[in-house]
Amino acid sequence: MSSDKQFNLQFQKLGISSLNAMQEKAFKTIQNEKQTVLLAPTGSGKTVAFLWPLLHHLNKEITGVQALVLAPTRELALQIESVWRKMSTGFKVNVFYGGHAMQVEKSSLSEPPALLIATPGRLADHLKRETFDPSTIKFLVLDEFDKSLELGFQEQMAFIIQKLHRNRKTVLVSATGDLEIPEFTGMQHPVEINFVGEKTAAPKLKMQLLECEDRHKMRRLFDLLCSFKGEPAIVFFNHREAVEEAHEVLTKLGLHPSFYHGGLEQDERERALIHFRNGTKPFLLTTDIAARGLDIPEMNHVVHYQMPLKEAEFTHRNGRTARMKASGTAYIIMSNTDNRRPYLSHDISAIELKKDYPLPPEPAFETLYISGGKKDKLSKIDIVGFFGQKGKLQKEDIGLIFVHDFFSYVAVRKSKTRTLLQLVRDEKMKGKKFKIGIAK
Questions:
Q1: 116, 133 in Cβ contact below 8 A?
Q2: What is the DSSP letter of 62?
Q3: What is the spatial distance between Cα 191 and Cα 171, in angstroms, rounded to a whole number?
Q4: How does 29-58 read in b/e, with b if 16+ C-beta sit within 10 Å?
Q5: SS3 assignment, position 342
Q6: What is the per-residue pLDDT for 234?
Q7: Do the beta carbons of residue 48 and residue 122 sit within 8 Å?
Q8: pLDDT given for residue 5 in this prediction
Q9: For 67, phi and psi rounded to 5 degrees?
Q10: How many CB atoms neighbour CB 424 within 10 A?
């Protein structure tokens, strides 16, 4: 099969008609060079940029793990897996991360995947337990490498790299330029692809400044979110406590925000993101942990309730909108007591908001939880069929579905959920009864 036909078959589900300039350069460089450093901003398509050449190095005749992608967070690892599965490559992929059952991961290695995606801590644990043979790995990707360093994974990454074959291809990926590459990576003379700071990365990003008195700041955030008329938005804070305080206040005022930060349990973080992705909670209140590495939809609005100390984090936050060729707006809410960051331009246009915006419309859907997933042989098709036949739902009553190993989440039209839950209460799906309820 020709390269063009293969591209069309594997990327049409991703909505890609052609590679952008960064992806084209990355493909050629990674194909031809042993060591590559890929620097490109958030939202520019870095995942496709390294998965496409990685695919070309896999061999169906080899039974061991051939390629390894290390990602700093569980969410990023799962996002990479999602892109790979949509590509329909025919090669098995596994994802290993903390909070996932070790025994499940060990069992999946009875038939080793061609591609293994993992967080550094969990993969180091596997290597110490000798659950699989890493000697067949000839392609290594260190994704969001700067973030891995920030999170303190130096020791684990050094241990992992020491266990890998020296004659391998290595790709280091980062959204931050001016990166000092540690010696443990083994990268001595890498070829650098640098698209950080390219003006074409976010060509239609508009910034607006909303000034207010300190005592009115939260109310101004409420007014701003109401002005979006139900369109989704991410609101960034510097501290976990500020996130939870804002969530409490905005919920009392009648909005439906979800909140996300590193102090939450893994299942709480997962639910927060799913509520936001499927639109049942249109506003995500978060720290910089959500500035990159998360699989969340593109949106028109990013709000800085608190400004980060570093310009790099400000840039990453803004990367959540105006991605690729889209447009978007970053709003900065600044009170009279806030310190203006030195990196912030002085020519940002100020805006005035009226104070009587109506509450945005109630989300039309809500999220249901199902106590079964992939390990129970459940699929999206099974859930749609069950809700349609037993729950009397139409296709338009069912929104996004997320099926994990041991549980699933389904967005269902809110006006139909009570009747649905009554109809399926005593019914079985694929011969088994599952707990189904509203996800809080």
A1: no
A2: -
A3: 10
A4: bbeebebbbbbbbbbbbbbbbbbbbbbeeb
A5: coil
A6: 95
A7: no
A8: 53
A9: -135, 145
A10: 22
Contact 92, 111 (CB under 8 A): yes
For residue 275, what are the CA distances in angstroms to 232, 242, 293, 295, 379? Answer: 11, 20, 17, 13, 20
The architecture (CATH level 2) of 365-438 comes to: 2-Layer Sandwich (3.30)
Work out whether strand 365-370 and strand 408-413 pair parallel, antiparallel, or are unpaired. antiparallel
Q: What is the CATH architecture of 3-194? A: 3-Layer(aba) Sandwich (3.40)
Q: Is 339 helix (H, G, I), strand (E, B) or coil?
A: coil
DSSP 111: S
* pTM score, whole prediction: 0.71
Give the torsion through C-alpha atoms of 220, 221, 226, 229, to 10 deg: 130
Collapse the DSSP code of 128 into the 3-class scheme (helix H, G, I; strand E, B; otherwise coil) and give the result. helix
- Position of tokens 């310009």? 311
Query: Which residues contact residue 254 at a Cβ distance below 8 angstroms, ignoring those fewer than 6 apart?
Result: 359
Q: Which helix (H) or strand (E) holds 272?
A: helix 266-277
Report the length, in residues, of the chain.
Answer: 440
Q: Is the pLDDT of residue 1 over 70?
A: no
> Dihedrals φ, ψ of 210, to 5°?
-115, 110
Structure token digits, residue 249: 């206040």
Sequence-separated (6 or more) residues with CB below 8 Å from residue 383: 370, 401, 403, 408, 410, 429
**Dist. CA 412–CA 420, nearest whole Å:** 9
- Pick 204-350's CATH classification: 3.40.50.300, 3.40.640.10, 3.80.30.20, 3.90.1300.10: 3.40.50.300
Q: What is the mean pLDDT of residues 199-217?
A: 79
The pLDDT value recorded for residue 293 is 67
